[in-house]
Amino acid sequence: MSYANDSGSSNITIQLLREQYGIETLHHDYGPVTITSIALSLDDVTQGSLYIPSKQAISEDPYFMQAQSRGAYAVLVDRQTVVDSAQISIPVLFGSLSAQELGTLAATLYHYPAQAIAIFAIIGQHTERYASQLAYILHILGNPVGLISSTMTKSLDTDLYTHMPLSSVAMQKLLSVIVEDGAAAAVIGVDQQTLQQGALSCIGVDICALIRDEDHIGHAGINEAAAYYGAVIGEKIAIATRTADSDELAELFKPHADPDELAVLSTCLAMVMAAGVRKNNIRSALKVAKEMD
């Protein structure tokens, strides 16, 4: 297992935060200070971090000194927070950043990792079964893949430590690790157990499916989820739903599966076909995987 780290990041200055996000500072000479990561908890603070403590952390801990000792380059608090600047030598910033703004900053720091891989999104409630099944299918088709779900987060064969639900900052860090490990795709379970509101900010979805009890698909539901989680939905997005072909492949792979299992498998196969993989290629890969079981 490994931790998502901050390697491969770019830089953001306090001057940029002032100019583009309305952040205020006590002194103007802080402008050139460079931020190399964003930390939403003390455990995530590393050398160069912008630490953004929660209200609970502000009330309970001497968070300034702890963040400074861990290597933070700046701390961001809301404008109502009273700060004794004499006790801290790093810049104190005043203002607030939305989940979307944090996601945009994190994407900049990590070189927009979502743009480097195919993003598969499974939207619904308790999507972990679908996400795990889809990642497995992509794997047996020869694709190195990352998986982000409430029960399992992996980069290829490596398990990653995460705290659910994920923030927009955590999502960018995870995708950065997945890209650095050489993945061609990432499968994301889009539900409230996995993601916070706005967690998909600055992340474009390439292929998606909306799962419901009736297994129906609808643009309205996808747009609603995209608005809640902040995902970027473009005109070229492929929206998958079960078809006769995907049902046929599912029954071929698991002829004795119950209806629920077949529904999961068929939906995932439909997503793979929506990504452009041919039915015959899928059939061959499933046959080999079945023989190896």
From TrEMBL:
Keyword set, alphabetical order: Cell cycle, Cell division
Keyword Transcription appears in the UniProt entry: no
Record GO biological process: cell division
Cross-referenced Gene3D superfamilies: MurE/MurF, N-terminal domain
PANTHER family to which the protein is assigned, alphabetical: MUR LIGASE FAMILY MEMBER (PTHR23135), UDP-N-ACETYLMURAMOYL-L-ALANYL-D-GLUTAMATE--2,6-DIAMINOPIMELATE LIGASE MURE HOMOLOG, CHLOROPLASTIC (PTHR23135:SF4)
The protein, known as: UDP-N-acetylmuramyl peptide synthase
Organism of derivation: Galliscardovia ingluviei
Organismal lineage: Bacteria, Bacillati, Actinomycetota, Actinomycetes, Bifidobacteriales
